[in-house]
Amino acid sequence: MPSYDTLNYPYASQRMAAVARNGMVATSQPLAAQAGLDILKKGGNAIDAAIATAACLTVVEPTSNGIGGDAFAIVWTKGELHGLNASGPAPQGLTIDAVKQLGHEAMPKFGLVPVTVPGAPGAWAALSKRFGKLPLSEVLAPAIEYAENGYPVSPILGKYWSRATRIFKDLFKGKEFENWFNTFAPEGRAPEIGEIWRSPDHAATLREIAETNGESFYRGKLAEKIDGFSREHGGFLRKEDLAAYQPEWVTPISVNYRGYDVWEIPPNGQGLVALMALNTLKGFEFGEKDSVETYHKQIEAMKLAFADGKKYITQRDKMSVQVEQLLSEEYGAERRGLLGDAALAPEPGTPPKGGTVYLATADGEGNMVSFIQSNYMGFGSGIVIPGTGIALQNRGHDFSLDPDHENRLEPGKKTYHTIIPGFLTKDGQPVGPFGVMGGYMQPQGHVQVIMNTVDFHLNPQAALDAPRWQWIEGKTIEVERTLPPHIAEALVRKGHDIKVAVDSGGFGRGQIIWRDPETGVLIGGTEPRTDGAVAVW
After folding, report:
1. What is the sign of the dihedral through the CA atoms of 489, 493, 499 and 501?
2. Alpha carbon distance 128, 51 (integer Å)
3. Which of 5, 91, 185, 522 suits 117 as a labelling partner, its CA being 20 to 30 A distant?
4. Would you kindly state where each structural domain of the chain is located, as residue ranges?
5. Which of 408, 484, 424, 450 is nearest to 81 (CA)?
6. Which of 73, 65, 68, 30 is nearest to 48 (CA)?
7. Active site residue 356
8. Could you tell me which residues are beta bridge partners of residue 80?
């Protein structure tokens, strides 16, 4: 476990880090965190707890994820690290020509066109089958109960639910969107904060997934319902696409940063962006956190990493460059050499040839899970399959319709994916899971959290409480109001276009759990920018 010196750190006072030994679940919604902890107390392990929490989040935080979304996981168990890519590909009938024939010059954000094969239910089943101790029916029981009997809407959840409903009333006019309103705004409005919300259809679907170990979603009754609705309303997703789907076990990728190995899921995920930035930054020494040079170099390295990521990242076997090339010492040094005293307009380099929820769980046996799940852009596509509560994702929006682009749309291909779980190890032993959700903020959040931990010795809660920044485009940087004003002013003098955000909701929502290798004690932090909670045992 990293050493911490945070008593005098000005942002550490918002909330104290949580400490426990037998188990810990950290996520963005207290009911989901408690559901995961209940599974641990019933004899489940960290993997069971992660599945329970993830399924529960589709009910108690539908503004960020759903049954029809994707998921990624990094699992530490029995001395090994395992990666799971449960993102889904484009349907076989979804082609560039087909989309353009519908009158689109770019992939639309909403509706049935950008819907890709959902991977989340497959992730739950795959994790349960390989590593779980309890049957999936028991693990999904808390989520089913909350969907069936209801729960009071929490403050941040209520805020985003209300905002989405107002926006969707203007956007969603077709018949294909009617069931979104029937499900999430049945009285013509979003549920208010503290109001009880129920979704019996959601409960029935979760029960069907639990009883069939996910089979019904891909090769059964639920698949038939998805197929039928998609055909009826001109969508591309078919039961054959669902039947062909299997989550993919992958080997996580990493860079060594000051003696720690930082792990991410390989492309099609954007975790590579975080690793490229850290690979650039590790050549510098950072004396203090709140200095203009620290922020300037972080921002510049992040911009260059994103320039490369947006150019090269797509499904891994369709990338024109290899991950190893982008993470090489040679390329890291080359990109580091571009970082000067003034803000850059980022451009991709040439490497040497060669809407989301996050949760972290840990148990007393040493198992740890970093898990992320999303529908994208909040509620996703705006499509809810009638009678199921299944809100479908819109990941296909990230495909390019340019046939020469690396991430061009192709049938059966996985797009550039924003959701990324992280994991930290040292000398081959686990430190623990971490993540910061929130679209393109995610790799930026990963870099900031890791540097807060490794370079500046902040405990998990302080690392999450600290002010954040995010690169938007060009030289535009958005910062939180808690960023020291003198830092913002100094960044402006270096050529950065600094925008102070009114709302901190766009700066990601993170969770961290670290384990002390000698005592087994767990220390966790949760996001102050949402309804976050750490449940401990």
Report:
1. negative
2. 8
3. 185
4. 23-247+357-398
5. 424
6. 73
7. yes
8. 77
